User: Fold this.
Amino acid sequence: MSQAHRLPSPIINSENKPFWDAAQNNQLTLKFCNGCNELHYYPRTICPHCGSDDTVWVESKGLGEIYSYTVMRRGVEFPFAMAYVRLNEGISILTHLTNCDFDGLKIGQKVRVVFQETQDGMKTHLFEPLK
Amino acid sequence: MSFATNACIAGIYEHPLRVAPNHTVAQLHAEVARGALLDAGLTLNDVDAYFCAGDAPGMGPISMADYLGLKKLSYLDSTDTGGSSYLAHVNHAARAIATGQCRVALITLAGRPKSEGSSGTQVRSQYAGAPDFAFEKPYSPAPLNMYAMCAMRHMYEFGTTSEQLAWVKVAASHHAQHNPNAALKDVLTVEDVLSSPMIADPLHRADCCVVTDSGGALIVVHPDIAKTLKKPVITMMGAGESTKGQMGGKVDLTYSGLAWAAPRAFAEAKLTPEQIRYASIYDSFTITVLIQLEDLGFCKKGEGGRFVEGGQLISGKGKLAFNTDGGGLCNNHPANRGGMTKVIEAVRQLRGEAHPAVQVPNLEFALASGIGGALGSRHGAAALIMGRLQ
Assistant:
């Protein structure tokens, strides 16, 4: 089951710290660019769509659907489900799927964000199917 | 001055070992360099350009140039786009030769992932300093899961099946049976592939390439030099390179960077996919081949599964002969980087030096393509088109 896999911790740096600070408060954040009015993920200081430095942190509603996924069954200590989730805001994010039957996953399935502790006690975002 | 016929591939060498526990990586680089120079009929003293990627020990090309004894270098390049690096190196070497910056370029690759216990299910250490890895580390991105998600999406969008993916491995195994050095020599059926263990849905163990030690090398030369050598003259005709990533979150797993790189290579070579009868297509996984076939223009996007069904990639049987050495899927994937062996087998085919059972008769043109890094997140892509001077 998914809870058997202990997630490695993210790498915190000065550029991404606001993202991880928000995650500790169960908030999934993205960057929005005032130069091109586009969101991006993973968050950067300079917008990867237009090159503007006028980017601001925004909170995602944390709802979306599975764009693609795989279940790692071998060569790992415990199986886990990796996915790209396409957020309702329109951009996709690499994550794990949890609180689910790995054999029942489907592309297009509706999911929502949940936060789980990593090996070092830092919280990171995962997604679970909507019931 | 046109690119075509301004540089030639004059030397090739693939190390015969697949497990090399008693070699150092530097030693393997030296052995393949020596092999390629002997194949070309040239010596170390002829080399004035050196190319290597991240598999070479030391800082860029500096340690290896010194170790190998290269004393006359006027051109260096350590571009690293993972397994596609060596295709890029051939392109860069050809441009440098065409503009007079060098005349004899040596490209080497070597590594020992088999002896060091490497697996495609492991997170790769070279990601450690990347800005993306800071966000992705909790999720253990590894070659297997990054390619598996591409396969899953391809199946969802286009109806591609596991049986169709299996046909890619089956074709490679038909070729590998004739290669005495191949890591896997058994001919497989679709059922064999599907009954191998599921590693990362929907990829089975047999959908994956082998992990092997050793390496390979290439010699790219000015045409004036190529014409003095004994081997058939193999000319560069066109090349294209690109990278593709997550595009700021606008993720699309259905195509690779070859969708941009391949049209440039064909335009430069003034050829179309219909004129290519042999292609070395990077085969880290079966899905890697399927997506490249589409991006190279051998079939429309989404039709790769139908294109490969029934053995259409088997030399002498299908419409396009691919990876007649057995490819990375069965023969060799040295240093976890398959681009070098792609070029080598394409040159063997053009020279008429492939195994008689898989040799494409009277071959004029050949293509080699590569995807390096992770198809599902960030990768380099390159395509080369070569021809035999008549």
Chain B touches chain A at residues 119-122, 131-142, 144-145, 148-150, 152-153, 156, 197-203, 205, 246-251, 253, 376-377 (CB under 8 Å). Chain B has 13 helices and twelve strands.
